[in-house]
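Comment thread on ticket #2218

A.B. wrote:
> Attaching the input chain for the structure job we discussed in standup.
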Amino acid sequence: MNEEIIVAVYDTKAHADAAVRDLETAHVPPEAISRHAGTRSASGAALSNANSGRGQGFWSSLFGGEPDHDTAVYDRSLESGSSVVTVRVPGEHVDGVTRILERHDPIDIDERAASFGLGTDRTTIGAAGTPASHEAVLPNGDEEVIALSEEQLTVGKRLVNHGTTHIRRFVVETPVEENVTLHTERVSIDRRPASAGARVDDADFTDRTIEVTETDEEAVVGKTARVKEEVVVHKEAADRVETVRDTVRRQDVEIERDDSTSRASGATPMPAATSRPKI
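C.D. wrote:
> Ran it. Output below, let me know if you need it in another format.
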């Protein structure tokens, strides 16, 4: 994997702490972040925990090559009490890490080098986090292929439940009343005297029994069920056209040609954060 080392110098400890904190929040591995701080003793002598006992070999081991003028700027800045934050990241993450580092007010390496009377010769990171100039080393000889990807929008369909309709049949009892005429028959017995002096020639002096039935009507209730109403349950289907809007990404290239005869003169302007390809 092609890795690069991004370097930023901060004059205050608070800015360096904030930069490291934001890098960790952005899920940059802690082992990829290195911080080197310089402090001053009570007498004003500079103490640096970055180059103490390491010398130029430390920067060579960090950047994977011979030190250039940048390391002198780093050393002088550490001697002044500044902090140097280095981040080792894959090439595709350089832009994002550079933006995080530049968010916390790093120093301008050009201006600091000029104040120290030093020149610079390095790969610079522009204001938008893209390399302003780059000396390409083609690993395959005469050419290197840069793949440009493009997203395509694919729209599918899925069934979404927007609710369920429940139909429940239940019984409702309603009190009703109706008037009905009922017939009643009762036996009534009256005794009265017969006409005086009536003569009976063939009197029947035998026992006799008469039975008379009494009747009484009562209401009889019956119920008849008939279909009064029908409830029809069905689903209505309809089609609609919906416009799906989204964004797709594609990769492009920006080609910038540097026709300067020499980049070692130190005349190239450089901003705060720098990036070095890992060798």
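A.B. wrote:
> Thanks. Noting for the ticket: Residues 136 and 164 are 64 Å apart (CA to CA).
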